[in-house]
Amino acid sequence: MGEKKIVKLLREYSESHENRTNKLIHWLCVPLIFFSIFGLIRTIPVPDFMSNTSSYFNWMNIVLLLVLLYYISLSIPLFFAFIFWALFVSFGNEYLFINIGSIGLLIFSISVFILAWIGQFVGHSIEGKKPSFLKDLQFLLIGPAWLMNFIFKSIKY
After folding, report:
1. Alpha helix (H) ranges present in 20-157?
2. Measured between alpha carbons, how far is residue 24 from residues 21, 27, 29, 107 in Å?
3. Residue 55: closest CA among 43, 67, 66
4. What is the b/e burial string over 58-69, where b = at least 16 CB atoms within 10 angstroms of the residue's CB?
5. CA 82 to CA 74: how far, in whole Å?
6. What are 102-150's pLDDT values in tens digits?
7. CA-based nearest residue to 30, from 142, 107, 127
8. 3-class secondary-structure state, position 19
9. pTM recorded for the entire structure
């Protein structure tokens, strides 16, 4: 069931991402937006029982697990590929959280988020088509899957 759905979603997402410049912008901006969103989530204070357990027991990692569940519902290979990306996002944001603090991570994440979205809208302006998520919010999670699909194709998977 999920495999057919992911093919349909990727095909639909591709329709508004055909211009070479827009694709290039997405290769940079989609991962930055994903990373920055989880940086923002990491700055949300956690209850004592969570912070006393482990610094990795936080809202960011809980939401990342939910995102992984969404991906496994769409595609097993996609899920396994995103485990590596989720680990990078988790460890990367945790590293920043420890080294620049919550406020530093908040400022960094907001800045990256805004700049990356400006890039996305420039790309769609060049493309001449609206971003897919304006039609369906689900496409916010399909963007990273769309990029992963290109990686799969390049290694002939």
Report:
1. 20-42, 48-51, 59-74, 76-127, 139-154
2. 5, 5, 9, 26
3. 43
4. bbbbeebeebbe
5. 12
6. 999 999 999 999 999 999 999 999 999 888 888 778 888 999 999 998 8
7. 142
8. coil
9. 0.89
